[in-house]
């Protein structure tokens, strides 16, 4: 019977068309093409009227089954399309919350900052506070209050950068001593790290910009013994071995007596080598007892109060630690140099 064949071929056609559908819209269009109001199967069934009762039964049953079959194909295809849709969506939107950033190139602290922070830790563990001051200073703070006379050679244009308004770029962190003496009530212990400036011809051992840490302790009965103990503690921790020191006389207007502190040569342990020019000692830092004029200038009675001060050059310290022969590397911004630290 041709109508039965027609129904069978509609089923085959529907199966094929539905299996190709890519989206739910396509699926629904196809569904309508076969079992919608104007669908192929519906059209065929219109011809049913001309059939006998027996035939109507057989064909009607077949048509029903066809309808159910096509519907079930549509639904299973619909599920498949949905599954695929979510699979693609999940894959494209997936991210691993535990995954960390691809490693980028990492920077590091400048070796001078590193040693500065180390020194700050050492001193704070000994009860020192950290003080700061401006890089542009008054002549009074940088020189006057530190007992530099008006005609002292350090004030010379050759050493100092002056600003147009009569101030200057501080030539040493000792300027912060003056601020400490003016602002703190003794007894006190401070260090003051900072950048300093000199009008220098730049070469392997001279820079116009470099770094110091100033230290100052003021109290009653502060003596050279306190100074030596503090310096030996500091240096043994910085160099990670026991460091011996010796004091030689040195002149700075703001200390009396003033010293150059030497340490036993770290390379030959004092036996004599090319680094210490066979002397067994390395000149490391200037220091001394705070000059009575500096104390009384700040309104402190030198008979009651005494103190020590020192000035540590950070560039030199880093150069010694890493065996660096040219101070100009520090400000060069040279990455091949900086990446080593
Ligand atoms: N301020 C001096 C300089 O830069 C270094 C110095 C010497 C600091 C003796 C001190 C000191 O505190 O007591 O050259």
Automatic annotation (TrEMBL):
Location of the Aminoacyl-transfer RNA synthetases class-II family profile domain: 113-340
Matches recorded under Gene3D superfamilies: Bira Bifunctional Protein, Domain 2
Single Gene Ontology MF annotation: phenylalanine-tRNA ligase activity
Entry EC number(s): 6.1.1.20
Swiss-Prot/TrEMBL catalytic activity: tRNA(Phe) + L-phenylalanine + ATP = L-phenylalanyl-tRNA(Phe) + AMP + diphosphate + H(+)
Nucleus recorded as keyword: no
Keywords: Aminoacyl-tRNA synthetase, ATP-binding, Cytoplasm, Ligase, Magnesium, Metal-binding, Nucleotide-binding, Protein biosynthesis
Class of the enzyme per the UniProt entry, highest EC level: ligase
InterPro entries, alphabetized: aa-tRNA-synth_II, aa-tRNA-synth_II/BPL/LPL, Phe-tRNA-synth_IIc_asu, Phe-tRNA_ligase_II_N, Phe_tRNA_ligase_alpha1_bac, Phenylalanyl-tRNA_Synthase, tRNA-bd_arm
One of the protein's GO biological processes: phenylalanyl-tRNA aminoacylation
Cofactors (names): Mg(2+)
GO cellular component: cytoplasm
Record-listed Mg(2+) binding positions: 256
Predominant location: cytoplasm
Subcellular location as annotated: Cytoplasm
Classification via NCBIfam families: pheS
Membership in a protein family: Belongs to the class-II aminoacyl-tRNA synthetase family. Phe-tRNA synthetase alpha subunit type 1 subfamily.
Assembly notes: Tetramer of two alpha and two beta subunits.
Protein's UniProt name: Phenylalanine--tRNA ligase alpha subunit
Gene giving rise to this polypeptide: pheS
């Amino acid at each position: 019977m041709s109508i039965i064949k027609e129904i069978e071929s509609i089923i085959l056609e529907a199966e094929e068309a539905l299996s190709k559908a890519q989206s739910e819209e396509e699926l629904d269009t196809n569904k309508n093409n076969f079992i919608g109001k104007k669908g192929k199967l519906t059209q065929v069934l219109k011809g049913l009227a001309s059939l006998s009762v027996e035939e109507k039964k057989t064909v009607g049953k077949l048509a029903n089954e066809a309808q159910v079959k096509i519907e079930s194909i549509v639904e299973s295809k619909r599920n498949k399309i949905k599954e695929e849709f979510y699979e693609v969506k999940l894959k494209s939107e997936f991210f691993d919350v535990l995954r960390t950033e691809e490693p980028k190139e990492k920077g590091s602290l400048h070796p001078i900052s590193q040693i500065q922070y180390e020194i700050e830790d050492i001193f704070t563990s000994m009860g020192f506070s950290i003080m700061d001051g401006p890089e542009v200073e008054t002549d009074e703070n940088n020189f006057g209050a530190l007992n530099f006379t008006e005609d002292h050679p350090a004030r010379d244009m050759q050493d100092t950068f002056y600003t147009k308004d009569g101030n200057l770029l501080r030539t040493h962190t000792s300027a912060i001593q003056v601020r400490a003496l003016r602002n703190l009530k003794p007894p006190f212990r401070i260090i003051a790290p900072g950048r300093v400036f000199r009008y220098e011809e730049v070469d392997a051992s001279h820079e116009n910009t470099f770094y110091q840490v100033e230290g100052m302790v003021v109290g009653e009965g502060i003596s050279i013994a306190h100074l030596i103990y503090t310096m030996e503690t500091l240096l043994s921790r910085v160099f990670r071995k026991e460091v011996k020191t010796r004091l030689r006389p040195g002149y700075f207007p703001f200390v009396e007596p003033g010293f150059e502190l030497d340490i036993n040569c770290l390379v030959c342990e004092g036996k004599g080598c090319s680094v210490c020019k066979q002397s067994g000692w390395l000149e490391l830092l200037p220091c001394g007892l705070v000059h009575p004029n500096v104390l009384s200038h700040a309104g402190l009675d030198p008979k009651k109060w005494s103190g020590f001060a020192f000035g540590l050059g950070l560039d030199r310290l880093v150069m010694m630690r890493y065996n660096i022969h040219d101070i100009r590397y520090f400000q060069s911004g040279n990455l091949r140099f900086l990446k080593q630290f």
